Every structure is written in structure tokens, then in C-alpha cells.
Amino acid sequence: MTHRIVLIETQQDVASPLMRALRDQGYTPVDHYYSVDGFLSQDTSPDGADRAPSCIIVAQEVKGLKPLAFADRVRRGKTHLARATPLILTAYLTDISQITAARDHGIDEVCAKPLRPNNLLAKLNQLIANPRPFVISRQYTGPDRRRHNDPAPATGERRGQSDPG
Hints:
Number of strands: 7
Region (Disordered): 137-165
Strand content: 15-25%
Domain Response regulatory: 4-128
Strand order of the largest sheet: 2-1-3-4-5
CATH topology: Rossmann fold
Protein name: Response regulatory domain-containing protein
Number of helices: 5
InterPro entries: CheY-like_superfamily, Sig_transdc_resp-reg_receiver
Distance between the termini: 53 Å
């Protein structure tokens, strides 16, 4: 499979096994950067679509531009990347407030560190094989946050269904 994966990770001891697992799974190329700023400054080649990443995996602990600010820039079209580029955040601390913040900034998936390559690969494979619909609204831009398959009612209206009378 020819899917370019970008890994933004400051720790070489975390990045090396992940890159190996990604390549073993058939993802090529796998490009590693130590910071979001480094990625944004080096990844602006004119061949554009040929180098567009299929997914970006970014560590919470990177220096410089932080992952949530990076996600905001991508989702608002303030970078050279497609707004719908899947983003996976990796973090040592993954309490509910951090997961909610990541989701609200348009992060597709969150993986807890220490990483298990199989868990990351399962999420990555799912994102690439079955991308979520992309939502653009005044309050939110990013992947559809609903995870369950809840078909819309025949009227097409979801709001107020649980409101009394």
C-alpha cells in the first residue's frame, strides 16, 4: 500500500519501533520529524498531492507548535495540508479532559503511551480504510465525532428528540 505516514515524535526510542512497525505493515513512506514546526517548514514541496500524508501521528510532548494548535491550523485550512487529513495524537496522560479537548480540536484518534504498535496500527488502518465524514460548521471543523451508527430519522431532524413535548 502506498500511504505516506508522517510521525512527529521527539523521542527516538519511541519513533524507531513505530516506524519499523508501520513499514512492516506496508505503509510507505514513513517520514519522521522531531517537531510540528520542523514538519511544516520542510514539507512544503511543490509536488503537493504526491507527498500528501495519508495520516499524521503527532506526540503530545513535541516542542514548538503544540498538537492541538496544529490540529486547529490544519482543520481551518491554515496549512498546506488537506483539512480532512487524519490526525492521531499520542500522549502519556490521556484523562477524559485531554481526550475531549483533542476531539474538540479535530483530532481523529488518541493513543495512550506507552504505545503498543498493534493498537496504533488498528486505529490507523481503520482511519484509512473507513474515513469518517468531515464536518465544517461555525462551531466545529473536523471528523464527525459520532462513533455509533445511528441513522437519521425519516424527517432528517435529530434535534429535540429527547426533549419533552
